Amino acid sequence: MQEVFNKNLKAHLTIDNKKIVRSIRHSQEYWLSDQENPLPVATQYFRTMAKHFKIDSDQLRKMSEKVSYLNPAKQGLEYRLSDERQAFDSTTYGFYQTYLNIPVWQAGLKVTMKSAPFRVISSVNTSQENIEAKLPSKATIERYKKIFRQAHNIVQAHRYADGESKISIPTEHAGLIRKLLGKSGSKKDAEEARKDHARLIRGRFFVYKYDKNNRLPGGKVKANVVGEVDSKHELELPLPPVDKRIKHGQYYMVAEISFIYATKKHGEINWRMLTELETGSVLYLRSLTSGVNGYAFLLDPISATGDATKTCDQPNSVLNPLRDDVTLNNLDAPVSGTQSLIGTYAKLADTDAPTIASPTEPTGTDFYYNVRSNDFAAVSAYFHVNRFFEIIESLGFLISTYFANTTFPIDVDHRGENGVSNAHCYGDGANGITKLTYGLMDNTGGDPLGRACDPRVHWHELGGHGVLYDFVGGPNYGFSHSSGDAVSGIFYDPDSKAPGDLRFEYVPWHATLRRRFDRDISAGWAWGGSEDDAGYGSEEILATSLFRIYQAIGGDSTNYNRKKFASRMMLYLIFRANQNLTAAADAEYARDFAQELMTVDLLNWTSEGIFGGAYNKVIRWSFEKQGEYQSPLLVRGDGTYGTNTSEGTPPDVDVYIDDGRQGEYDYMSTTWNTTTIWNRNSPDGIDSHDPPILDQPNYAYVKIKNRGTQQATNIVVKGFHSKPMAGISWPNDLQAFTTAEITVTTLNGNNSEEKIVGPFEWTPIINAYGHDCMMMILSNAEDPSNVDNFTASETIAAWRLVPNDNNVGQRNVQPVPGGGGGEALAGALQNVGFWVGNPNVKAAVIKLDVKIPNFLTKKGWKLDFKGLSKKSFRLKSGEQREVFPKLVLGKDFVREDIERINDRDIKISAYADGILIGGMTYRLEPQIRKAPDYRKSKCKKEAQDLLNCLEIRDQKVKKAKVKNIIVDIEMEDDDCGCC
Question: Which among 412, 390, 155, 387 has a CA at the least distance from the CA of 260?
Fold first, then answer.
């Protein structure tokens, strides 16, 4: 399998070993449709792309018809509509591949498009080949259909029952389940039957290719051992062998049966099985639950204090002072003077052993309890489950559509799991959540500390598994246990004070579990490495990949608000990517999920007013750093899968401007100091910066490289400039150089060649300061810049654009005299102002932060701003203000003092509501003895015109200087109308 760029489609394609296109990401140019409604766009798109996907166009004739799960008939391959999801500015359609008029298990097409106008962003093809299956007898089909209809009616009756009604369940339903599970009807089986609570939830028909290695969990992938309670990452039931007529690799029409079946250890659990109709052989069985063995909470004692000794075995005297007094939102009103922990999203219920009731209180009484108590665990369970759904809403998702198949409130058992240290999120068998259960975390001294006290476990269960039931029909990705570890770590990181490398550990509060998100690929934690087991090991690899993206886009900032923005941005991308998945097009490999992240990044986060398209390259890079994107792409079963210990391969073409990161994306706070962009006063190509001169042509240059594996061709380099400014917005605040662009014919890959591109002729924006900000942007057919993702009406702040696209470089660096002592430096900054803009969508308080070299600080130098005693002011969205630095002189210095130090920058950083939006840098250069006279050419032309006017034609103006002003104007008409 390999990833290639198709110049005709202007898109990146993933192609399998049979040369079938499995995904298309329209990376350079979206596929534009003239249709006015989204469904016709989707069908038109796939008919256009049929030849690329190698699909017979006749199979696409009925794509607009809804898929049927209950009406098998003789019919060849076709595609039918299965999913339609709208979110923010996008629509996603899923189409099942069908055979015998029913869906083929986990096979089909998917497309995601942007609205107004409709533009396709990406598509996925999970179709299967050479499908042949026999249609069972009519009597067999009708027998199952009757049972399925009964089960549907019973589920609906339960859903709308008032809690008192008795709903009868046909005994043959339980009998069918027991028979399929191989219960013989013996006396022992009959005794167990009274306790198994077996009943049907839902039944549907599919066509399924039997895989003997995937019948139960752990067949295709290594069983995941976590070493605390459960030895396997999914629950199992013993199954009888399949009928001898069932052959590995053959297709069969099967019944997908969701059902409830209780086990001694876990109580009632929902399951899904695929059974061949005529033989009754169970070909596939999975529990609709997911378990973990321990996580950290929001501000657990270690994260809250930074004290690693505040462990979970501490007594109440240590833990109680660390409790937070929180509001329990969305509670139902008290009943008969009693307040229960039942609300909009969560309902405390005793569903599993042991039997421990949740607390109640008289109306108006607070739920205040000791940490080491079951009641504290109950309050924690309600608070954190409710809070999770509130956070999802705050990100702009509608609970009613994101969790469309879940009936709220969800049952929450704060002390279940038979007392072990574990937790589970259960599916309801109909693509929704039914309940959450939490066990015991610590029992030191006999006083219980519940697992529900740990907020991170809620984020793993709900954010990792609960969100998947609606979209892929189960709690896991095809390539990983979930992204629960990642969303938990990303959500809590901005507030955590966990010391040292505990930042990268889920549960610094847990005694034994050590799941992390900073895993080293050389130790097997690579995609395709020895720990890539599609279970918990892969989850740690995924968490490392996703947390790296978060770090790069601001999570590694020392500024809280920037970290918080990065956290919310990543959660939005992950949850929206989940929403983009379908049961037929789940993510089979890490690169599939990376593509979903890149797809939703191109869409707009409309509830936040953020235009998408900033983070595609960071996403791809992070998965590459973790071993994905080998060349060729790694595929399970190819012999090398499971042995990878190296980073992936960069894209074929990855041209960049080096800002100090060699084209990569580790977090960098100061993004405007790119000195591989510079100016010259003449087109001499010398690699040294000249301050621009006003009113005459200047000449800009840039160095470019290519970290891709192939030679880049026809690279277009564009140059822009703006007045000196912090808080630049693309494209509003920039204008093109006079030489708008230069094309570079070739650039060798693997960082083996560096080229200087220029000169770009340009004239500074008319101002009194002589130094504009400069920006260079590279583009290539295979590696377009992120600015190509934005339409004419869309904007992006430079603080989001520049650091996340190595095709873009920005220079706000002005050399100032360091060789002429304090007087020369003061003269260079005297009355030399710059502008600060607010590029964000909301009004904000702007704060200016100044950092001057330690050398000058020790000598008593300071930098303030005229009229800004607190270095802050307020700007509306898009508003700008000019500010003037005021240098307070300290002790003098000489050139040799500057030559001895490396820290030579006077850096002014601008923050909008705490988020760094840009800045200006004034660099002390020891070879400069005095400030350039930016105004020296200001009036030369006017002065020369004056001399010509006075018929003094044999003199050339060297300099114009005002000494005296005498105005004597004689009017042609003495009657001037003056008083």
Answer: 155
Residues in a beta bridge with 701: 678
Q: Is 476 exposed, middle or buried (0-12, 13-18, 19+ CB in 10 A)?
A: buried
Single pTM value for the model: 0.86
Say how far apart CA 596 and CA 585 lie, in whole Å. Answer: 11
As a whole number of angstroms, the distance between CA 542 and CA 141 comes to 42
Task: Compute the distance between CA of residue 852 and CA of residue 90 in angstroms, rounded to an integer.
Answer: 47
Beta bridge mates, 698: 762
DSSP one-letter code for 650: P
Q: Could you tell me the strand order of the sheet in which 834-837 lies?
A: 725-726, 834-837, 880-883
152, two tokens: 């549907």
Torsion from C-alpha of 488, 493, 496, 497, nearest 10 degrees: 130
pLDDT tens profile 873-929? 999 999 999 999 988 999 999 999 999 999 999 999 999 999 999 999 999 999 999
> H-helix or E-strand containing 940?
helix 940-949
Sequence-separated (6 or more) residues with CB below 8 Å from residue 154: 167, 169, 199, 200
8 A C-beta contact, residue 555 and residue 547: yes
Question: Is the distance from CB of 386 to CB of 345 less than 8 angstroms?
Answer: yes
H/E stretch holding 680:
strand 677-680
For 31-99, the three-class secondary structure string (H helix, E strand, C coil) is EECCCCCHHHHHHHHHHHHHHHHCCCHHHHCCCCCECCCCCCCCCCCEEEEEEEEEECCEEEEEEEEEE
| Angstrom distance (rounded) from CA 367 to CA 358 | 11
CA distances from 105 to 98, 134, 237, 672 (A): 9, 15, 22, 51
Nearest Cα to Cα of residue 290 among 519, 467, 33? 467
Average pLDDT over residues 161-187: 68
Rounded distance between C-alpha atoms, residue 87 and residue 569, angstroms: 16
The pLDDT score that the predictor gives to residue 292 is: 37
Q: Which residue type occupies 491?
A: F
Looking at residue 217, its pLDDT comes to 79
In 3D, which of 601, 590, 600, 289 has the Cα closest to residue 416? 289
**Nearest-angstrom CA–CA distance, 278 and 295:** 45
Secondary structure letter of residue 460 according to DSSP: I
pLDDT of residue 231: 37
CA distances from 157 to 146, 147, 298, 311 (A): 17, 15, 39, 48
Q: Distance between CA atoms of 137 and 145, rounded to whole angstroms? A: 12
CA neighbours closer than 13 Å in the CB half-sphere of residue 327: 3
Q: Is 900 exposed, middle or buried (0-12, 13-18, 19+ CB in 10 A)?
A: exposed
Any idea what DSSP says for residue 893?
Answer: -
Is the CA virtual torsion 736, 739, 745, 751 positive or negative?
negative
